[in-house]
Amino acid sequence: MDPNDGNTDGTGSRYTRDERLRMALKTLRDGRISLLDFILHVLRSSNDEFKTYRARFFTNPSGKLTELLDHIFEDKHGRPIVLSWMEPRAITLVLGKVSKEMDDMKTALAWTINTTTPENLLTWTIDTCCICDIGTIRRES
Question: How would DSSP label each residue in 82-128?
Fold first, then answer.
């Protein structure tokens, strides 16, 4: 048995990770607290006692938060909930990115009286004006 996967109950008997999780869930159930209510309380609370838990929840060196989101998204019941939650946020995100790119393009395409010549007008193409490099548009020298 992995020494990091067991705990003692004070009498020296060891519990597996599954047993400890079942005991934790029983404690929640006995307290009439759902798992989601427990997580939400920790995340919403301004109580300093939960500060470390909140901070660790959002640091992702182990990838557990990403793994949780992946499991929810892969579940046939979870996917529609995530998509419904995600859609307005995704639209806002995409609109913001497109708007920024359009603003960058307007800057790159801005001509002044000094740069507007018959030769420039006759030879101008989007390729001679801008270089699109992974979403970054810049004026060619």
Answer: HHHHHHHHHHHHHHHHHHHHHHHHHHHH---TTT--HHHHHH--HHH
